[in-house]
Amino acid sequence: MANPLVPSLVDSQLTVKQMVNYPTKINDVIAKIAAEQLVTDLFFSGSAGKVEGGGIHFTVLLKGSNFQTGDVELRAPGAEYPVVSGDLTTDLAVVADYGSKMQVLDEEQDRNDRLALSAKMTQAGNTLARKIDERAIAAIDAALAKHSIAGVTAASQWADVITVGPEANLTPNNERPPRDFAQANLLTRLDELGVGKLNALLLNPWQEFELTSVYGESLDGVLKAAGIDTVKTSTLVPRGTAYMVEKGKAGKLGFERPLNTEKYDDRATRSTWFQSFAVPAFAVNKPGAVRKITGIGTGA
């Protein structure tokens, strides 16, 4: 069976040797593997243009500075509109250079070892995705703490919720996960930042398992009622924690250098090296579009 990540000799497709001669194709495969796993897009949307000067200087929209200090006034004919202003908070997201190298041996090319190349590209894509997500979540956590964005403490651990059985044993509605979802949305509305419905949920795989165990086939309806249309998991999210977010509205992801793969020959080891790197910056300009939910499970 042909490996789905690396073209084979069948039907005149590329061999391993041909792939090695086109690092852009290696780059495309690594990018595809990484993109299929990323959770960064739940928080950040792409920033147009290249990051210049080593970082992104941006304005942060926060409660208390989301309105002008004055008010609009009724203008009489011939009069001027009032001059109003507002306090603005600014911040700087500095770029960081992340990358790794992989080695393709001459023997792997000579023997058309597609599985070896596939495994190495998969490792590169997995590692890249983990690092980008790690930095994205760290940027979100730092912004939530820095700007004191209110979060939600769960009413109960999700694994303890009972939805089926004798009525006396059922968990009250105000101690179930939908209450946590509703409170997260309430906090965003009270801040009046122009944030829409928090429509994405990011959590540890264990908490997804617990949520599924509690609601079973009813889970889709529960999530839909809460306005959640996207659920992703990541082991980078600590157990017992979840994030609700308006997809792509928390900030901008910019690149001084987007993902690039370069190759260089190493005759001393009869091999070819490929180094893949990206230089991103994470600008969290609307941290109120994210609400962190804690206490939904144990940390063990």
What is the CATH superfamily? phage-related protein like domain
Query: How many H/I helices?
Result: 7
Give the % helix. Answer: 25-40%
The whole-angstrom Rg is 24 Å
Order of helices and strands: HHEEEEHHEHEHHEEEEE
Return the CATH architecture: Alpha-Beta Complex
Question: What is the CA–CA distance across the termini?
Answer: 40 Å
Helical/strand content category: alpha/beta
Count of folded domains: 1
Which percent band covers the strand fraction? 15-25%
Which strand order spans the largest sheet, edge to edge or round the barrel?
5-11-8-6-7
Any idea of the CATH topology? phage-related protein like fold
Query: Which parts are unreliable, with pLDDT below 50 for 5 consecutive residues or more?
Result: 1-12
Principal-axes geometry comes out as flat
In total, the number of strands is: 11
| Mean pLDDT over the residues | 90
How does the major sheet shape up? Answer: 5 strands, mixed
What is the CATH level 1 assignment? Alpha Beta
Polypeptide structure, described:
The structure is a single chain. The chain is an alpha/beta fold and 300 residues long. The protein has a single domain, classed as phage-related protein like domain (phage-related protein like fold). 30% of the residues lie in helices and 24% in strands. The chain has seven helices and eleven strands. Strands 5-11-8-6-7 form a five-stranded mixed β-sheet. Strand 9 and strand 10 (271-283) form a beta hairpin. Helix 2 (23-35) packs across helix 4. It starts with 15 loop residues before the first helix and ends in a 6-residue tail after the last strand.
